[in-house]
Structures are given as C-alpha cells and as structure tokens.
C-alpha cells in the first residue's frame, strides 16, 4: 500500500496509521509522537488525498485518540456552572476561562474548516474534524455546534437531524455566547456530520467525564464510581477527586476530594446531593479548577 505525502514522494513505511503511531511513540514518547502525528494530519488537511491515504489517516487518528483520551487536557474540560453560581462559589475566574475556551474552540473550528480547502470548493472536512477533536475534545466541539444550531434559527442548509441532535444538549448558553461559527452553513453541516460519526464510532460519551470509572471500593457504604488524580509529588502522595454513590443515604450522591498515600485514599470535603448531576457538576468544577 502506497501513500503520497505533500511533496508527492511515496510513503511506504507503515501498513496502517496505528503502526505509525506505535513506532512514533516508541521512538519519541507519547507527547512528541502526538505532535508528529498531528502535523501529519495537518499536512493532509491542506490537500486532496487518496481513499487509501484517507483510511491511513482514520487509523492514525483512532490510534492517537484511544491512546490519549484518558489523559487530562485542561483545555478540553467544561466548566459546568452559570456565572451567578460561579460568583457564589468564588470561581468567576474559572467561568471566564471556560468562556474563553469555548470562544477559542469556535474560532479554531472556523480556521480548520477554512484551512481544509485544498482547491476551490473542495474541502477535507473529515481531517478537519479529526484535527479539531484532537485540539478541543468531543464535548466542547459538540456543545459549540449545538449552541450555534440552537440559536441561529432555522436554516435549510443544515440537516434536520442536526437540529434534533442539538436540542438534546443542555448548556450554560451565556458561557458560549462568544462561540459563534462564521464558516458557511453547508460546510458546518458537513463538518458536524463527521464529528457525529466519529463520536458514535468511539462511543465518545464514555469520555464525557475526566478520570477513570471504578467499582468495588466502599467508604462507609458509599461506592466510588469515578476518580481522577489531579496532582502528585512523585513520591507516593497525590490528590484528586471522586464521585461516590450510596442508594440508601438521604443524599445518595457525593463528590469528594481525596489524598492518596502509597495507594491508600483518605476522602474529605464532600459535596452531597440528591441526584447524580449534582455530583457530576461539582466533580467537573473541582477538576477544572485544580487543573487550570
């Protein structure tokens, strides 16, 4: 199988994108390999490619995403509260930072769509979608798209299924009020097609919350459902946050802070609530604040 690089020289070193990713990781480490592979996607963004090379890029993206989805990227976290709630929580600066990330994401989507035009009226929107996801994450991109569809009014150039999809999202709309997309509606519609296809392909809903799903650890009847480490001293001490559930408690859901010493956690500073969303919001806000 032969692929042509932008300089039109044949590329024959790998059978598929996953093989290239593994080789780059072994040669350079995951951080540098991610940059190298993103640059490869950028090269394909700006030109036409064959069906085989398109498949190579899809396999490369899949390998990259599966390997890095569990890593914490602060830019991909969503601050969950309204401005009023953020002020009461003394977290206005984090709300403002979330607003900036949302706006940056919209500008980034516009730029990637425009950059994917390799000749008049021809766009590599699938590669643009892959590149956007690597940069901003599924959740923020979906919310930016949904915000635009919910607030721009009817447009026959946007698929009816996209309108229906957008209506399923609940968000802090003021936090997205700077996230207007300027690209042509037909291009946004096609871009959204690729985002949604990739979202379902990866079952990306499982990455909606940072951290790792857990089962089997109980603290006074509360089972830990998800946890994330946000800091570590490299000597066995770390801190983080966790979501717990006790169906028999008056307030069955909790978001705890924890300190871990040599793998043993001590939980404290709980935020308790009657529903899971209360714990999820507290968890997201606390992780966002810890990492930004």
Helix/strand layout:
Blueprint: E1 3-4, E2 10-11, H1 17-28, H2 30-45, H3 51-68, H4 83-88, H5 92-115, E3 117-119, E4 122-123, H6 125-136, H7 138-151, H8 160-166, H9 185-202, E5 212-213, E6 218-219, E7 222-232, E8 237-245, E9 253-261, E10 264-273, H10 276-291
Antiparallel strand pairs: 1-2, 3-4, 5-7, 6-7, 7-8, 8-9, 9-10
Helix pairs in contact: 1-2, 1-3, 2-3, 2-6, 5-6, 5-7, 6-7, 6-9, 7-8, 7-9
Tell me the total number of β-strands: 10
Helix content: 40-55%
Over the alpha carbons, how many angstroms does the gyration radius reach? 21 Å
How much of the polypeptide forms β-strand, as a percent range?
A: 15-25%
Return the domain count: 3
Which class do the helix and strand fractions yield?
alpha+beta
How many helical stretches?
10
Largest sheet: 6 strands, antiparallel
- Mean of pLDDT: 92
Oligomeric state of this protein: single chain
Query: Uncertain runs with pLDDT below 50, 5 residues or more?
Result: 1-10
N-to-C SSE series?
EEHHHHHEEHHHHEEEEEEH
Through-space gap between termini: 44 Å
Shape: globular
Describe it for me?
The radius of gyration is 21 Å and the shape is globular. It is of the alpha+beta class and 292 residues long. Helix 5 packs antiparallel against helix 6 and helix 5 crosses helix 7. Strands 5, 6, 7, 8, 9 and 10 form a 6-stranded antiparallel sheet that branches. Helix content is 49%, strand content 18%. The protein folds into 3 domains: 68 residues, no CATH class; 137 residues, no CATH class; 80 residues, no CATH class.
């Amino acid at each position: 199988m032969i692929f042509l690089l932008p300089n039109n020289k044949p590329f024959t070193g790998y059978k598929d994108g996953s093989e290239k990713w593994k080789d780059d990781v072994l040669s350079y480490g995951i951080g540098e390999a991610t940059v190298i592979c993103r640059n490869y996607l950028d090269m394909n963004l700006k030109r036409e490619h064959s069906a085989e090379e398109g498949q190579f890029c899809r396999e490369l993206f899949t390998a990259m995403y599966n390997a890095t989805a569990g890593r914490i990227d602060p830019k991909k976290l969503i601050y969950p509260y309204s401005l009023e709630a953020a002020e009461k929580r003394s977290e206005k600066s984090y709300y403002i930072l979330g607003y900036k990330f949302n706006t940056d994401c919209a500008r980034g989507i516009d730029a990637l769509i425009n950059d994917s035009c390799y000749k008049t009226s021809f766009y590599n929107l699938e590669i643009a979608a892959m590149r956007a996801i690597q940069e901003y994450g599924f959740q923020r991109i979906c919310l930016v798209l949904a915000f635009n569809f919910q607030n721009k009014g009817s447009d026959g150039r946007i698929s009816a299924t996209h309108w229906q999809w957008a209506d399923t999202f609940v968000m802090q709309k003021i936090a997205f009020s700077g996230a207007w997309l300027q690209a042509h509606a037909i291009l946004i519609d096609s871009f959204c097609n690729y985002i949604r296809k990739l979202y379902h392909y990866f079952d990306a809903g499982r990455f909606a919350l940072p951290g790792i799903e857990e089962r089997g650890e109980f603290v006074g009847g509360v089972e830990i459902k998800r946890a994330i480490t946000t800091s570590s001293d490299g000597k066995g001490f770390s801190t983080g946050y966790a979501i717990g559930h006790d169906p028999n408690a008056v307030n069955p859901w909790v978001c705890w802070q924890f300190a871990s010493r040599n793998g043993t956690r001590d939980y404290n500073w709980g935020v308790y609530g009657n529903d899971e969303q209360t714990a999820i919001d507290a968890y997201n806000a606390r992780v966002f604040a810890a990492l930004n």
